[in-house]
Specification:
Elements: E1 12-17, H1 26-35, E2 39-44, H2 54-61, E3 65-66, H3 83-90, E4 93-99, H4 101-109, H5 115-122, E5 126-131, H6 135-139, H7 141-152, E6 156-157, E7 161-164, E8 170-174, H8 178-189, E9 200-205, E10 210-213, E11 216-218, H9 225-236, E12 240-245, E13 257-260, H10 264-275, E14 280-283, E15 290-292, E16 311-313, H11 317-320, E17 328-335, H12 339-349, E18 354-359, E19 371-372, E20 375-377, E21 382-384, E22 388-389, H13 390-404
Parallel strand pairs: 1-2, 1-4, 2-3, 4-5, 5-6, 9-12, 9-14, 12-13, 14-17, 17-18
Antiparallel strand pairs: 7-8, 10-11, 15-16, 18-20, 19-22, 20-21
Helix pairs in contact: 1-2, 1-8, 3-5, 4-7, 9-13
This protein binds ligand PMT.
């Protein structure tokens, strides 16, 4: 379903597909782009035809697929005579996925010997490259250097991941998952790039569960979506990211370290042990303020007539954490009433550099939704954002953090 806040809606995207086994994942990329409202045109190298047919990609993109620099269906070469220039001017973004070692090398040196590489030379707008190859080919110094040069020239590289490869080997070279490539496309189209390179960011996500007995707990409705969206956005913007998550079904990317905790006390211990290695702490977790005074090691029977649970206060993680010079702490405030007043109070009381306010009174905001509506408060400033996807919201939070670090 299209979401009004989707950055890809109405965007013109070219997908370049080259000849590697990961070409089969191009179908999922096209499908996802189209379902998010983008107009998609596909260009393939001759080698890509060995792995996937133009008919599949034409059907999914609802557009003709270009394979030949001089398309056979041109009327004597007249109608489409400068198609590469037209496409280059048309696109808001070109994604090359997968990008083989061969195509990466050609792009570095400006070689234009097929439809795809010719178009890359004519491209005016952003270029996103998702390389893929078997591990030794991927790691070959020429490929590493070529990717580095392309990145220095402004291309956005979604690095290949480690894992099981078509050859049977295990190592780096797997093309990034389509969902990560789509996230990176959204990030680029929002005007962001790897602006958090060399930063280490610690994010907390999800709820905490405070156990009563082995089967019952006190929890809250946090899904972890907001925290993991921040983690994914921060990673794609170049940061080293660790997530400390309460129980949550959400996932980050393979490169994001995850520490799983259950209770507020466990989360506090994990934050305390990891904060010193990080530059920024973003506490989006919904931490329980209270826990049962006693934990019963056995399942409490109905016959025991438990009619109330005595609670004791949990430690306030944010209020207790000490930062050194250069470190920054960002909290969240979830309110039902008086967001402005309460968020500003928490900003001061917890000695934060920034607090992100959200209220469940706004439709589509807060717990569980894929969207959120936030206001970022610093000591001297307050910036309000509309209802957006949690990924876009995460990018806006990072943009506000960027202003204060
Ligand atoms: O996970 P989702 O379903 O995507 O929902 C996202 C969210 C609604 C959980 C998120 O956007 C959010 O608002 N998180 C903070 C929720 C919360 O606990 O707010 P609070 O106002 O009670 O706490 C203020 C801040 O103090 C928070 O940063 C919290 O992490 C921190 N805190 C709270 C209690 C405690 N004992 N220690 C803390 O450090």
């Amino acid at each position: 379903m299209l979401n009004g806040s989707d950055i890809l809606k109405g965007k013109k995207v070219i997908l370049g597909v080259t000849g590697g086994i990961a070409a089969y994942k191009a179908c999922l990329i096209v499908r996802s782009l189209v379902s998010k409202g983008a107009e998609v045109k596909v260009v393939m190298t001759p080698s890509a035809l060995e792995f996937i047919t133009p008919l599949t990609l034409a059907t999914l993109s609802q557009n003709e697929v270009v394979v030949n620099t001089f398309p056979a269906n041109q009327k004597n070469g007249v109608d489409l005579k400068t198609w590469h220039i037209d496409y280059g001017l048309w696109a808001d973004l070109m994604i090359i996925a997968p990008a083989t070692v061969n195509t990466v090398a050609k792009m570095r040196f400006g070689i234009a010997d097929n439809a795809l590489t010719t178009l890359v030379c004519a491209l005016r707008e952003k270029l996103l490259i998702a390389p893929a190859a078997d591990m030794d080919m991927y790691n070959t110094p020429a490929n590493m250097e070529n990717l580095k040069v392309l990145e220095e020239r402004g291309a956005y590289i979604v690095n290949a991941e480690e894992g099981f490869l078509a050859s049977g080997l295990t190592g780096p070279g797997r093309m990034a998952e389509p969902s990560k490539i789509i996230d990176a496309a959204e990030l680029l189209l929002s005007g962001y790039t790897k602006d958090f390179r060399n930063k280490r960011i610690l994010v907390t996500a999800g709820p905490t569960y405070e156990d009563i007995d082995p089967v019952r707990y006190i929890g809250n409705r946090s899904s972890g979506k907001m925290g993991f969206a921040i983690a994914r956005a921060a990673y794609l913007r170049g940061a080293d990211v660790t997530v400390i998550s309460g129980p949550s079904a959400e996932t980050g990317y393979p490169e994001i370290d995850r520490i799983t905790v259950r209770s507020a006390v466990e989360m506090k211990n994990a934050v305390e042990s990891n904060f010193s290695e990080n530059d920024i702490l973003i506490m989006s977790a919904a931490v329980a303020d209270y826990r049962p005074a006693e934990y019963s090691g056995h399942k409490i029977k109905k016959s025991e007539k438990l009619t109330s649970v005595e609670l004791v206060e949990n430690p306030d993680i944010l209020a207790s954490i000490k930062k050194r010079d250069g470190q920054h702490i960002v909290g969240f405030a979830l309110e039902t009433d008086d967001l402005d007043k309460n968020a500003k109070l928490k900003l001061e009381k917890k000695n934060l550099d920034m607090i992100v306010g959200n209220t469940i009174k706004d439709n589509g905001a807060g717990f569980e939704f894929d969207t959120n509506k936030i206001t970022c408060y610093t000591k001297n400033n307050c910036v309000e954002f509309p209802l957006l996807s949690k990924f876009q919201t995460a990018n806006n939070i990072l943009a506000e953090i960027k202003k204060i670090i």
